[in-house]
Amino acid sequence: xxxxxxxxxxxxxxxxxxxxxxxxxxxxxxxxxxxxxxxxxxxxxxxxxxxxxxxxxxxxxxxxxxxxxxxxxxxxxxxxxxxxxxxxxxxxxxxxxxxxxxxxxxxxxxxxxxxxxxxxxxxxxxxxxxxxxxxxxxxxxxxxxxxxxxxxxxxxxxxxxxxxxxxxxxxxxxxxxxxxxxxxxxxxxxxxxxxxxxxxxxxxxxxxxxxxxxxxxxxxxxxxxxxxxxxxxxxxxxxxxxxxxxxxxxxxxxxxxxxxxxxxxxxxxxxxxxxxxxxxxxxxxxxxxxxxxxxxxxxxxxxxxxxxxxxxxxxxxxxxxxxxxxxxxxxxxxxxxxxxxxxxxxxxxxxxxxxxxxxxxxxxxxxxxxxxxxxxxxxxxxxxxxxxxxxxxx
Length: 394
Hints:
Layout: H1 8-37, H2 42-69, H3 73-90, H4 97-111, H5 114-129, H6 134-155, H7 161-176, H8 202-232, H9 237-249, H10 251-255, H11 258-265, H12 267-287, H13 291-296, H14 305-319, H15 325-355, H16 357-381
Helix pairs in contact: 1-5, 1-6, 1-7, 1-8, 2-4, 2-15, 3-4, 3-5, 3-7, 6-9, 8-12, 8-14, 8-15, 8-16, 12-14, 12-16, 14-15, 15-16
C-alpha cells in the first residue's frame, strides 16, 4: 500500500470499516455460542439464524430505496448502526425463544443493511478520486483478525459479553460515520425494465445457482463452527478467536490480487476452485476429532467465501450492461447470499440436531463437491465462461 492508493479519503473510511468488521467478528463468531449457552438447541438455533437473511431480503430493498432518496446516506447509516446497537442490547434482556426471535428479526432488519450502505458511500467517495477499494477493505480484515485473536481472552466462559461488546462496537461504528465523506442520495429517472432483466443472462443465472449451492455449505460453517469447535472438539474460546484471526489474515493477499486472478482465469475456473476448497475444508471438519486440525483448516478460508463473492461481483459487473448493474448486484445478493443462507440455516439445524455437527459438515462437503462438478461440466459445455475477462462474456 502506497500513497498512490491510500489518501485522505481512504483514511476517513477506514475507521468505520474497522469497527464494522469488529462487530462482525463478535456477531459471527460468538452469537451462536451465546445462543447455545442459554439453552437454545441446534434446531431452534438454525431457525433463529435463518431469520437474518430472511429479514435482509425484506429490509435491503427498503433501505436501498431510502438511501437513494435521502439527503445524506451517512445519516441513514448512522440510524442503522444506532438501531442495531439498541436491539442487540435488548436481546440480552430475556432468553425466551419467541422474544429472542422478535428482537433478532428486528436487529437483522437494520444490521444486514449496514454493510451495503457503507459500501455505497465508500465506493462513490473512492471513485471521485480514482482510489481502489482494496486497501480500505484490507483495514477491515486486519481489525477483524486482531479482535478475533484477543476476544477469547475476555469471552471464555462468558459468551453473553459478546452481545454487549457488539452493541458498543455498533455505537462506535455510528460515531465513525461522522468521519466519512458525505454522500447524498441520488434521485434518478426510472429506467425501463428492472431485476427481471437478469433472467436474460443464462450463464450468469447458472453461475449464481452454483454459488448458491456453495453458500449453503458456507452457512453450515457460519452457524456451526463456533459451537462445534468449543463443545464437540473441546477447543477453548481463546483458541476459537485465534481460528478467526487465521482465517481473516488469509484474505489479505487476495484482496490485492482478486481482480488480476479474475482477468486471467474467468469465472468458471475460479468458482470450481473455490467449491473444491470448500468441499475439502468441510470434509476435514467432518472427519476430524481434533480441535487443532479444525484450527489448521482455517488456512483454507481465503479460497472460500471471499474468493467466490469477489469472482461473482466481477462477473456480474462484466456481464450486465450499465443500466442494470445495480439490479444485477442486488439479484446476486438476494438469490445467492440471502436465499441460500435461509436454506442453509434451516437445513443445518435439522441435520445437526438429528445426526450431529460432524455429519452436517460432511453433507456440506458433498454439496460443495457437487457444485464444483456442476461448474466444471457447465464450463466444458459452454466454454464462454472459461474466457478471461479481457474477452467478452455472454
